[in-house]
Amino acid sequence: MDDQSSPPSPPPSSDTTGYRQHSSFQAARPESLLTRTIPVTAELPRYRTPSARRDLVAGVTVAALAVPSAMAYAEVAGVSPVNGLYALLLPVVAYVFLGSSRQLVVGPEGSISTLVAAAVLALAVGASADAAELAAMLALLVAVCFAVAWTLRLGWIADYFSRPVLIGYIHGVAVILVIGQLGKLFGLSIAASEPLPQLWEVIRELGDVSRLTIALAATALAVLFALRFVLPKLPTALIVVVAAIAASWALDLDAHGVAVVGQIPAGLPSFAIPTPAFKDVLHLLPAALGIFLVSFADEILTARSFAGKHNQNVRASQELLAMGAANAAAGFTQGFSLGASGSRTAVNDNMGARSQIAGLVAAATVAVILLFLTEPVQYLPKAVLGAVIVFAAVGLVEPAAWRGLADVDHVEVAIAAVTTTCVVFLGVLEALVIAVGLSIIDTVRRSARPHDAVLGWVERLGRYADVSLHRSAQVTPGIVVYRLDDRLFFANARYFKGRVREAIRAAPAPVSWLVFDAEAVTHVDASGLEALEDLANDLRRDGITLVVARLRTRMQEQFELAVPNEANGSRHFYPSVHAAVHAFDRSRA
């Protein structure tokens, strides 16, 4: 945004006549209705054996990770582990056909499961048939929220979840997940459903812990973290779960007081319409809205981050449709609300998956487990499931993310910290509302006190630049060049006038001209024009002429109302700062 000494000229052979006849912007060629509705079909015509091989390996690997995670998150959500497996079948298939991301993996996730538990466990006993029915109904309500948002084209909602908010939210969820698993790790039966009451209950019952359960959980955690650092590409969670099942069966840990998952119904889920009491449905509505907001924000950001690595495009409106269909499928097949899995998506991408065919393979693998392998799964100790969740929660902690925020602005660190604290103490939805409010306030704060600069000529750069950054910058005596790096509107109008006065007072010589470099001003409102007019009049009374340089053509008419040319024809508008300074030099000659 620094001024060049002379504007670049177009090459002699350039032809701009086409822009006079047509728009200078052209939308991308629209895709076919089939491709827009079912994006995966765009991959099929060029789908070849190497792609199929990569998708097959990725799908099986993702399923291996998803099975223990889904069972663990089902426990978090307050339903049976088998409901977590059900959520890996038809919901995943629904996203495969409708999602616009080629790598994203959906399914039960920690943050969503926490929200489900908060809503369901207030109305029913955990792991009961009533809890499963309420969780399924909640998934259908979430699907309705996605459908309404898709109909109203509300994909822009996700843009209001800034990076500090998401970092704080993720770390708050990590704390909640760890606290929520303490009961399983210590062999305690915890009745509380909120993080702080859970922690207090664990502390009160420390005298009743199961030493064998603690030893098992500690061993599982040690192996999980050791394998993560030694052999990071292995399906660590699956290895630990399989080993725990074998040990539990061989040593009959259930008979020694170690809680196990218990019998899991074999077979695929049946279609069913949940029919809880109407008053319970009304109670679930606020939770459904909160899950929608959290799920969509996390899903669209995860999808876009992986799509960006491969120069792909993710359509927010299509993701609304896909996630709505996935949640509806979960509601009708005894599952519960789901979201995007960042960890499994990363594995899917690392294994070379380049289409949602890998998702179909993952769903088919889970179906095989439900049909033929439920017998051994019943021996899985709950402490190991808790260890898997704690392991995943620790993986969410990113110190580098906090350092990145600190490098940009400490206010963003504060927003993230407040979000984390509120997630733990108040709840996820309340925390997001507060955090988004803080982000908006911070945006207003930045707009009210935007960056600005006094410019001087820097010979080695051949342009005008910020004198505070370039000590060699030369300032022409009698003139101040001031640049505002933002809109000029009601929130910063008074600040703008005050800063101009400060720049004039700090000038090394008496000032005759003030050059306002308006190249970075993208918008001006009525308050901004009024401030500009007041400033021009005040400066005129002080014997200082206000001129404007590098103003965008579309705002010329508005600025001329506030800073009109003199009656004698003297200009107040110049194409560059360089031209304005030369005009000042000529006026003194």
List the keywords.
6-stranded mixed β-sheet, 589 residues, mainly alpha
What would your notes on this structure say?
This protein is mostly helical. The protein has 24 helices and 8 strands. Residues 4-17 have low confidence and may be disordered.
Topology:
Blueprint: H1 17-21, H2 33-37, H3 49-77, H4 81-86, H5 90-98, E1 106-107, H6 110-120, H7 129-151, H8 163-186, H9 195-204, H10 211-230, H11 236-251, H12 278-309, H13 316-332, E2 339-340, H14 342-350, H15 357-372, H16 374-377, H17 382-396, H18 399-408, H19 410-425, H20 428-448, E3 452-458, E4 463-466, E5 479-484, H21 493-505, E6 513-517, H22 526-541, E7 545-549, H23 556-562, E8 573-574, H24 577-588
Parallel strand pairs: 5-6, 6-7, 7-8
Antiparallel strand pairs: 1-2, 3-4, 3-5
Quick structural gist:
The chain is about 60% helix and about 5% strand. By secondary structure, the chain is mostly helical.
Envelope shape: elongated
SS-derived structural category: mainly alpha
Beta-strand content estimate = 5-15%
End-to-end distance? 30 Å
Unreliably modeled segments: 4-17
Query: What is the averaged pLDDT score?
Result: 85
| Structure summary, number of beta strands | 8
Bin the helical content.
Answer: 55-70%
Number of helices: 24
Cα-atom radius of gyration: 31 Å
Widest β-sheet, arrangement of strands: 4-3-5-6-7-8
The biggest beta sheet is recorded as: 6 strands, mixed
